[in-house]
Write a structure and sequence with these properties.
By secondary structure, the chain is an alpha+beta fold. It folds into three domains: about 220 residues, Rossmann fold (3-Layer(aba) Sandwich); about 80 residues, Translation factors (Elongation Factor Tu (Ef-tu), domain 3), CATH 2.40.30.10; about 100 residues, Translation factors (Elongation Factor Tu (Ef-tu), domain 3, Beta Barrel), CATH 2.40.30. It is about 20% helix and about 35% strand. The chain is built from seven helices and 22 strands. Strand 5, helix 6 and strand 6 form a beta-alpha-beta unit. The radius of gyration is 24 Å and the shape is globular.
C-alpha cells in the first residue's frame, strides 16, 4: 500500500497517528491489537506470533510480538528511531509512527509526531499520570497535533473500575488545560483483552463513548489544514526546452496552505512582483484549482524571475518575512547547541545559513516551567532560541501553519540534522 499523501492528490482517507507512552504501558500490545482485530495482519505473521506465544505458554496470543521485533534490534544497539506501520480498514488508510517511550527519545517522538493528525498517549490505569505522560502531552501540544486521545490502558488490572478511570480523566483534564490542543478524548481500554480497542467492552458498560478504532476511522481531519493562507514554496523551475514546449516555464512545488485557482492574482516573494495564475497541472492533467497538500506545477501570465526557495502567495495575505526568528527548538544531537554557533537551515524549499543569537530559556517538560537561568540545550532538550538568518525567511507562526512554521538545523561539518524548530 503506498502513501498517496505526497502523490499530488488529496487523500482525506489517510490518517497519520503517533503512539506515545512510558516503557511497558502496553503500546506494542495496543498496536498489535489494532492490527489483529482489524484483520490487518498477514497469515505468516499470525502463525509466527501464535508459535512464539505457545512456546511461552501464556495461553493467549502475545500481540506485542508484532511490533517487538524492532525492540530486539534496539537492544542490540541498532538505532531505529521511528518505526512506521501501514494498515487499512474499508473506511480509511493509516500510518502509525511508533516512537520509543524512554525519556532519552524525546527527539524521536518529535520526528514521528511532526506530521501526525492525531496522538494516542497511553496511561497505565494502575499508575495514573507519570512524568512521561506530561512530557508526551507537552510535545503533542508543541507540535500542534490537532487531536489527542488519552487511552487509560490496563483497565483489566483495576477490575474495570469506573472510579479509577474518572479519577485519571479528571487529573488529565486539569493538566491538559495548560496545553494548546483543540480536541482531547479519553477512552478506557484493555489492549491485552481487547476492551474498547476495536470492539466495544461488555465489562465497561458504564463507558458510553466510541471505541478507539471507531474514533480513528471517523475523526474529521479535513479541517486541520490551513485553507486560508495561500502558500506555495517553489521547489523547482520546469524548463523542458523541447520543440513541443519550447517556451514553457512552470513552477513545481507542494501547496502548503490555501487554495490556488486559475486566474487568481498572486505575488512572488522575496521580489514582490505580481502576476496571475495561467495554468495549474496535477500530474499529466490540467486542473482548475490546487490545495494543500497537493504537489502541482503552476505557470504564470507574466515572465517573472523565480527560483527555488521563492514563495508564491496572495498579494493581500503575505507571510512574515524576516531574518530574525524566534523558535522553540528540540535538540537532537549529542553535542549541545552552541550559542553564537552557525548552522545550515532548511525552511520549506529555502536553504540558508543561520547564527544562534540567544538562548532565551529552556523548558522543564515535566512541570511546563521555563528554566531561564539554564542556557545549555543538550540532546532531547526543548528551548526557545533567537536565530538570525543570512537571507529573509517567509514564514507563518507554527500554530497557524505547521509547514511554513517549521525549520530544521543541520551541522555543516557532519551534515547531521541537529534540531527541529517551531517558529513562535
Amino acid at each position: 500500500m503506498k502513501d498517496n499523501s505526497t502523490h499530488g492528490y488529496l487523500d482525506m482517507d489517510l490518517l497519520r497517528f503517533t503512539t506515545a507512552g512510558s516503557v511497558d504501558d502496553g503500546k506494542s500490545t495496543l498496536i498489535g491489537r489494532l492490527l489483529y482485530d482489524s484483520k490487518a495482519i498477514f497469515d505468516d505473521q499470525m502463525e509466527a506470533m501464535e508459535k512464539a506465544s505457545s512456546k511461552r505458554g501464556t495461553g493467549e496470543v502475545d500481540l506485542s510480538l508484532l511490533t517487538d521485533g524492532l525492540r530486539a534490534e534496539r537492544e542490540q544497539g541498532i538505532t531505529i528511531d521511528v518505526a512506521y506501520r501501514y494498515f487499512a480498514t474499508p473506511k480509511r488508510k493509516f500510518i502509525i509512527a511508533d516512537t520509543p517511550g524512554h525519556i532519552q527519545y524525546t527527539r524521536n517522538m518529535v520526528t514521528g509526531a511532526s506530521t501526525a493528525n492525531l496522538a494516542i498517549i497511553l496511561v497505565d490505569a494502575r499508575k495514573g499520570i507519570l512524568e512521561q505522560t506530561c512530557r508526551h502531552s507537552f510535545i503533542a501540544s508543541l507540535l500542534g497535533i490537532p487531536h489527542v486521545v488519552f487511552c487509560i490502558n490496563k483497565m483489566d488490572l483495576v477490575d474495570y473500575d469506573e472510579a479509577v478511570f474518572t479519577r485519571i480523566q479528571k487529573e488529565l483534564e486539569d493538566f491538559s488545560s495548560k496545553l494548546e490542543v483543540r480536541d482531547i478524548r479519553y477512552i478506557p481500554i484493555s489492549a491485552l483483552k481487547g476492551d474498547n480497542v476495536v470492539d466495544r467492552s461488555d465489562r465497561m458498560s458504564w463507558y458510553q463513548g466510541p471505541t478507539l478504532m471507531y474514533l480513528l476511522e471517523n475523526i474529521h481531519i479535513a479541517g486541520d489544514l490551513n485553507h486560508i493562507d495561500r502558500r506555495f514554496p517553489v521547489q523547482y523551475v520546469v524548463r523542458p526546452m523541447t520543440e513541443e514546449h519550447h517556451d514553457f516555464r512552470g513552477f513545481a512545488g507542494r501547496v502548503q496552505g490555501g487554495i490556488f485557482r486559475k486566474g487568481d492574482a498572486v505575488q512572488v516573494l522575496p521580489s514582490g512582483f505580481q502576476s496571475t495564475i495561467k495554468t495549474i497541472s496535477l500530474g499529466e492533467r490540467e486542473v482548475e484549482e490546487a490545495f494543500a497538500p497537493q504537489s502541482v506545477v503552476m505557470t504564470l501570465v507574466d515572465e517573472i524571475d523565480i527560483s527555488r526557495g521563492d514563495m508564491i502567495v496572495s498579494p493581500n495575505n503575505a507571510p512574515e518575512s524576516s531574518q530574525d526568528v524566534d523558535v522553540m527548538l528540540c535538540w537532537f544531537n549529542e553535542r549541545p547547541l552552541q550559542p553564537g554557533g552557525k548552522y545550515a537551515l532548511k525552511h520549506t524549499s529555502r536553504d540558508c545559513r543561520v547564527m544562534v543569537k540567544e538562548v532565551k530559556y529552556k523548558m522543564d517538560i515535566s512541570t511546563l516551567h521555563k528554566a531561564e537561568g539554564d542556557q545549555t540545550i543538550r540532546m532531547n532538550d526543548i528551548g526557545r532560541v533567537h536565530l538570525r538568518t543570512t537571507v529573509p525567511l517567509h514564514f507563518d507562526k507554527y500554530q497557524r501553519n505547521r509547514y511554513t512554521g517549521s525549520i530544521i538545523l543541520i551541522d555543516e561539518g557532519t551534515n547531521e540534522t541537529v534540531a527541529a524548530g517551531m517558529i513562535v
